[in-house]
Amino acid sequence: MAFVSKTRGINEEELVGGHTELYSMGYANYVNGESTSNRKQQPLFSFGLISDVQYADIPDGRSFLGVPRYYRHSILVLQRAVQEWNNHQSPNFVINFGDIVDGYCPKDQSLKTVKKIVHEFENFKGPVYHLIGNHCLYNLPRSQLLPLLRIQKDKGHGYYDFSPVPEYRFVVLDGYDISAIGWPKDHPRTLEALRFLQAKNPNEDKNSPTGLVGLERRFLMFNGGIGEEQMKWLDGVLQESTRLKQKVVICCHLPLHPGASSKEALLWNYDEVMSLIHRYNCVKLCIAGHDHKGGYSIDSHGVHHKVLEAALECPPGTDAFGYADVYDDKISLHGTDRMTSIDMYFNSKADL
């Protein structure tokens, strides 16, 4: 794989089999979808989260698996989320985990629709951090999309980091760094992605997993990979976080662990990324979207992986958003309606 870094490889079975070390490496509590957090303890800070709004002013439809999608209703989910965040939950900031507008949005409406959804996020009374997803890139090229999402990065990259408090750092990855969508057709990253897909997926339709077996089913055009430059950047950030004794939350539109996600939704080189992450003890949680049903797992190194349920697939009158309370020893996700609540406790033996 041309775009991955030369970090030590990791056994994919080690990642998939992470549940076996569940209680020795860290653990989570969730009972009937409700968090078992001790609410008397005061969090260091809180943040709101939502994923895969995928709004479009078109009739309801279905995914390729036949799951209903409520394109016009999803903006109402976002509006209710912002209202809750502002009036009741009061998070310090909000993270949007990507795909704010659906790929079926008529292309002559793409710019207006992206601006419309960004405006809804801006009604939140605090900072909003955006991730880019595949549906964002179906609608607008990076050159237009990133400024609208307030992502200021050289060369059109969508990765960055921020520290809301000295004890924590959030690292936002660009899962479509190497991708056949979003970059100009003759861009080196587009050409590299097309060569990669040609080698990995024999189907004429590169979004089809037909004939691909097991974890190979992730080699689809609607996914992407992280390039070598971004891997070097991530390595540097994790080194610095270790030096500063910070705990790290990784945010990526594409899931990074097979135990938390469908195989078809994974980052192309998730194994390389996790191999790098596992060289350090600072990463406690990886959060993703993309796989609309949601999911959760703990890997063999005690890193939690949470995939968020999609706002798009909420029937009218239902919701999928939440907020997370962040403590020194855990992160408690409090989900609304279809978003699962869970307490994620950290490995107390980790040497930061």
Summarize the structure.
By secondary structure, the protein is an alpha/beta fold.
List the SSEs and their pairings.
Elements: H1 12-16, H2 22-25, E1 27-31, E2 34-35, E3 45-50, E4 61-62, E5 68-69, H3 74-89, E6 93-96, H4 110-122, E7 128-130, H5 134-139, H6 142-148, E8 160-165, E9 168-172, H7 188-200, H8 228-243, E10 247-251, H9 270-277, E11 283-288, E12 295-298, E13 304-307, E14 320-326, E15 330-337, E16 342-345
Parallel strand pairs: 3-6, 6-7, 9-10, 10-11, 11-13
Antiparallel strand pairs: 1-2, 1-16, 3-14, 4-5, 8-9, 12-13, 14-15, 15-16
Enzyme class: hydrolase
Keywords: Hydrolase, Metal-binding, Zinc
Protein name: Manganese-dependent ADP-ribose/CDP-alcohol diphosphatase
Descriptive account of the structure:
- The protein is of the alpha/beta class and 352 residues long.
- Helices cover 25% and strands 21% of the residues.
- It has helices at residues 12-16, 22-25, 74-89, 110-122, 134-139, 142-148, 188-200, 228-243, 270-277; strands at residues 27-31, 34-35, 45-50, 61-62, 68-69, 93-96, 128-130, 160-165, 168-172, 247-251, 283-288, 295-298, 304-307, 320-326, 330-337, 342-345.
- Strands 2-1-16-15-14-3-6-7 form an 8-stranded mixed beta sheet. A 6-stranded mixed beta sheet has the order 8-9-10-11-13-12, with helices on one face. The protein has a two-stranded antiparallel ribbon with strand order 4-5.
- It is globular.
- Residues 4-25 and 31-38 have low confidence and may be disordered.
What is the molecular shape? globular
Q: Roughly how many Å is the radius of gyration?
A: 19 Å
End-to-end gap: 31 Å
Number of strands: 16
The helicity comes to: 25-40%
The H-and-E topology, N to C, reads as HHEEEEEHEHEHHEEHHEHEEEEEE
Mean pLDDT: 90
- How are the strands of the biggest sheet laid out side by side? 2-1-16-15-14-3-6-7
Major sheet, described briefly? 8 strands, mixed
Structural class: alpha/beta
- State which percent range the strand residues make up: 15-25%
Unreliable stretches: 4-25, 31-38
Number of H- or I-type helical stretches: 9
